[in-house]
Amino acid sequence: MNNCTGFDSPLGLSRRTALARFGGGLGSVALANLLGDSKAAPSQPSYLTGSPKAKRVIFLFQAGGPSQMELFDHKPRLKAEEGKELPESVRMGQRLTGMSGNQASLPLVGSPFSFAQHGQSGQWMSDQLPYTAKVADDITIVRSMHTEAINHGPGVTFMQTGSQIAGRPSIGSWLSYGLGSMNENLPSFVVLVTKNKKGQPLVSRLWGSGFLSGKHDGVRFRPDKDAVLYLNNPDGLDPKSRRMMLDRLEELHLHQLAKTGDDALDTKIAQYEMGFRMQSSIPEVTDLSQESDATFELYGEDARTPGTFAANCLMARRLAEKGVQFIKLYHQGWDHHGGIPGGIKRQCKETDQASAALITDLKQRGLLDDTLVVWGGEFGRTNYCQGKFNPANFGRDHHPRCFSLWMAGGGIKGGYTHGETDEYGYNVVDGGVHIHDFHATLLHLLGIDHERLTFQYQGRHFRLTDVHGHVVKEILA
């Protein structure tokens, strides 16, 4: 039961009545959404389509730019022409990064790994993905992703927020703003970061709410006794005293709200109350010791170690069961400017089994049909070798013009490959999917019209898909 319901204001009014009087009713609507009070809630917003296929999203973000040629986009011609120069007719003068743009030569290099078709659908995958291959018929591989961003900072920001420029709300924040929460005791947007991984830095603005209210921020869970920072009571303060302190603080907020009508006070009330409820809900949901040996075997032994990618995938399933709406996992280490053969092997060893296990686990629990799972990074890698040509130990530079990701569940086709790149794996030749298209499709699956979910800020109506983007209907089940 929500701890706020029985509050009496210093004026002898219930909280809902007080807020209704102290803000023309807007505070009442905000609090009603928090408390799940359908009687006081407004009518359905115009941006809701009324036909959601997914209730939640788990995004397995592979930071650094995984090489599509080593994973999903089989290009035999690169192997056949290894060492030859990238044809100008393929490059067409397109921009390169400063890391390889000044090379005297751009020699093509093929993947050192073998590829095969898997499942009844015949999806092509590298031999470095044996577990993902087992769920080939459950996923759609999109080979034709593309972006304008060519460096990590703008690229990661673009994938998280729909803009290369920092400061916009992240995907999870937009969903929290547009859909509210499916539970009272956990955040609607949770972030998990693989522990002790090196790579391009991950900063909190990537899961921030930008110009939306701070209550839509992603909440990062850490793999230690304090899963959420500053949540636990300090020594000497028991739960009863904490409750009394919050009640008195709330009285002060309501007095201030009566004078100012400041919407930020609604956020403070909501955040303090959520924090109090999370003191009991967080320890339960983060306790992986409740899981069976069979589950740990499914996800891999790494799942027993808090903070690993495998443990975070298992945590994501537990959070999905509890009604968390958007769960974002970050796994660094995919930025292979050198040492691709060894680097890809390590990354796949850390991520392949657990990613596939998440699909299997959700499916056997009846959750995959309404849970959208996404696996992918911010851009791809070049088809040519960065630096000195060495087929045995080479690297690839950033490549925004085509890359691959996969999606599963939540209204997505299973056993389908969408889009195509040229024989050299350099340009999209069919079924291109821009990041705005990807975001539009994600929102569509959650029952949201991406053109209508907007927020007015500094005189403009902003949206996740900026000013364009379309739903990729071909990948919908």
Helices and strands, with pairings:
Elements: H1 15-21, H2 26-35, E1 56-62, H3 76-80, H4 88-91, E2 115-118, E3 123-126, H5 130-134, E4 139-146, H6 152-161, H7 171-179, E5 189-193, E6 219-221, H8 239-260, H9 263-285, H10 293-299, H11 309-321, E7 326-331, H12 340-364, E8 371-376, E9 380-381, E10 398-399, E11 403-408, E12 416-418, E13 420-421, E14 428-430, E15 433-434, H13 435-445, E16 455-457, E17 460-462
Parallel strand pairs: 1-7, 1-8, 4-12, 4-15, 5-6, 5-7
Antiparallel strand pairs: 2-3, 4-11, 8-11, 9-10, 13-14, 16-17
Helix pairs in contact: 1-2, 8-9, 11-12
Written overview of the protein:
The protein is an alpha/beta fold. The strands form 5 sheets. Strands 1, 4, 5, 6, 7, 8, 11, 12 and 15 form a 9-stranded mixed β-sheet that branches. Residues 1-41 have low confidence and may be disordered. It has one domain (48-227, 286-475): 3-Layer(aba) Sandwich (Alkaline Phosphatase, subunit A), CATH 3.40.720. Helix 1 (15-21) runs antiparallel to helix 2, helix 8 (239-260) runs antiparallel to helix 9 and helix 11 (309-321) runs parallel beside helix 12 (340-364). The chain has helices at residues 15-21, 26-35, 76-80, 88-91, 130-134, 152-161, 171-179, 239-260, 263-285, 293-299, 309-321, 340-364, 435-445; strands at 56-62, 115-118, 123-126, 139-146, 189-193, 219-221, 326-331, 371-376, 380-381, 398-399, 403-408, 416-418, 420-421, 428-430, 433-434, 455-457, 460-462. Strand 16 (455-457) and strand 17 form a beta hairpin. The protein contains 13 helices and 17 strands.
